[in-house]
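Standup notes
- DV: blocked on the single-chain target, sequence here:
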Amino acid sequence: MRKEFPNWDFILAPVWTPPLSVAKEIPALPENVFFQFQKTRIDAGWLQAAGRMPKNAQDVSLDSFGNSVLATDPIVQAGLKSEIDYAASLGINNFKQIDYVWPWWKGRWGYDEASVAAYREDLSGSDEGLAILPGLTGKLAAGGVIHFWDYYEYYHGLRLKPADLGLQNWALYKPISEKNAAQGGDIEKRNLGVFILLYHYEWLRQAQRFGRWAKAHGGTHSYTLNPEDLGNGGDFVFLSFLADAGTPYIEYFGGPSVLRGAYHNLPFYVDKANHAGKKMALILEKGQAGHGQHYFDPEINYLYAFESAAVGLRNYHNEWVESNWRRMSDPKNEYLYDRWSNWMTGALGFAFAREKQIRRPETRIYNITVRSPGYYVGSWISGLKQGQSFGPLLEEWHVPYKQWERASMADILEKADVIFYTPPSSRADDWKLLREWLGIPGKKLVTHSNVPFSFDDGQARLARNVENITYTDIEKCYSDFTSEKNDFKAVVFPEFRSLKKSGSGTWSPIPNARILVGNISEPLLSSITLENGNGIYYLHKPPVRLNPDERLEVMKVLSGNLELPRTIMDSTAPVMAHAFAGANVEFLNVWTGLDKPGFKGGYGPHLLPKRGADEFDRKKRPYPWRDENPGRKVSVEVPVAEPGVYRVYAFLSGKETLVNASHTLQLDVTDVLAEQFCYAKDGPVIQSEIVALKKHRERLFPYCPDIPKKQ
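- DV (later): unblocked, structure below
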């Protein structure tokens, strides 16, 4: 392994309490090989006996922690610390918490006495606070010790007093249930909004404790992270800025559709980590929950890991090894060798993108919305469904945009030429920033429906009778269960002041605006030209409510008016296409078979869970590399900067061709569900690059039985 990856360190990270013998084994490890204690489930038996388990709003105790951590109780904190202290006594100084999440199943947790006591500390500012590094946007840029209301203000742009929740003081605070908040008024909805950020803040407090306990032994503590999600309690931005926290490892699982979130949204998190002087890393599971037959062929895992590295993730963690390396790497053990092959191809794809510094290209197109800390929106990590965002529409049109959070919008104003502004609620200061930005020549703003009228007042705006919202399905979104609240008097842009919502849900015409799609009785897309020539584009209903014909017409008009860049211009079948840039050549990953069960993210029977060695059949994959329909071809048209003869290398298939291109370059995906194309205008540079790629491709041969060995 060290010969295969000479530039990399190896971390051996078993998931069990280390035995005493580790004290003798660690000093004998070879150079560049390290040991890590991965900590997992809390034994709940004694906590249950003592009545100290976390509770939900119905006063029901959590039945088990699973892999989650809810450590508001000092007794739980002491137990978690003792694990680290014990391991450190054996010479271990590297720690990681597996699936570091707040309990999320069956709704919200943290209504027990210990949790409420911790919240009251947070609200009053009497807790130890969070020590953060410099580099955040806005008031927290200098770093230092912050407290809950600093954290709350970062997201909502305001601070609350006890009276805002109908209280005399914070010592009386009790978190409200989702159902009572949904049925209640402003105070109840505001209480729920506070509660959501309180348990995110508590998640950060425990992450800080982990880091400090490890530092006390001269060590570091990193974190395995399931997707940043409202139920999980995670905040990946502030975790990166915790002075005492180690590297966050984002776990990706499920079908390739999750790479949409990685491609468009992960650059935001990587940028934040970079500003904190940190890095973010990747965990890839092998099989559902990390065990059993993998739902991908090794070729697919190569592309999956390649994309993760190319958007900026820095370390590669395999999940999991099911036997010793000698057995796993022996082709005679077919089931184990298949898992080994997926691990190796993932590592090869990840290392290649990192070592060759292949990166997602920069962009001038940004989509602005909010993240799950504090808001009922879907996770950014694995999907694009953040409320009524333009994200899915832009991705469908193959626009290589980046998504950015509303609270950090100031970061990108100098870079952005086009902003799609779509948060479920805004702050007046955000609109003022956008107005200043529109004063710079060459800028265009796109928004829709009630966005100009929806202002952030800290309320969690659940629809009536909603309770215990929990999702494991990537296709769904928390914001499906939110309600609309508009403040027409607070609107900042005068152009929107006369807008009214019709009974059909479409918003009225804008005076003196040009209707680009629709008509005066029912406008769909309008534009307003400002005095300096800049433009405001307004969609008269939310993007999620557009039918297919409307989607096509709206995006055609916007694409032309905004001069939107596109990764591909056309395709003969639906595809997911992500472009990357090397030093001298372009890379394009094209994914077809979007209707295959295994393309979908999330967990479920579509990923062959618990399919072990006795049932192993490598021909049965939810998302294989080889297409089950031989002869099937999907063609895509890729825009090129200049006409000419292009040399194209299909990396996985091994086909090298010369293609004449005028405005677009036709690339064909034949007999497979996914392909990576490397291309450039023909000449010595691309020819040399392809020679090197062919040599690199040979490293896949032992692990990819389906790829052609000769062409």
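- Follow-up: Residues 186-215 form the longest helix (30 residues).
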